[in-house]
Design brief:
Blueprint lengths: L3 H10 L3 E2 L1 H8 L3 H10 L6 E3 L2 E5 H10 L7
Antiparallel strand pairs: 1-3, 2-3
Helix pairs in contact: 2-3
Length: 73
């Protein structure tokens, strides 16, 4: 499995925007789960460019960091 930072760098080399399937792969979730999160307003920030839903790589990294949890006491 690739390092998430390495995957982010590869994505930045092209367009900073990822499709839903690329985003699901990047986050390690199914497209169905990503759509469910988006509809509930719980997923990463997304943009609509014309009819296409796209995610900016920086928004994905920020959302992922916000989901991190530490050990509970």
């Amino acid at each position: 499995m690739e390092d998430p930072v390495q995957r982010a760098e590869q994505a930045r080399e092209g367009s900073p925007y990822l499709t839903s399937s690329q985003t699901a792969h990047f986050l390690g979730v199914s497209i169905y789960h990503l759509v469910k999160l988006r509809r509930r307003g719980m997923g990463p920030v997304y943009r609509r460019h014309c009819r296409r839903v796209q995610y900016h790589i920086d928004d994905l990294l920020a959302w992922s960091a916000a989901q991190a949890t530490g050990p509970t006491s």
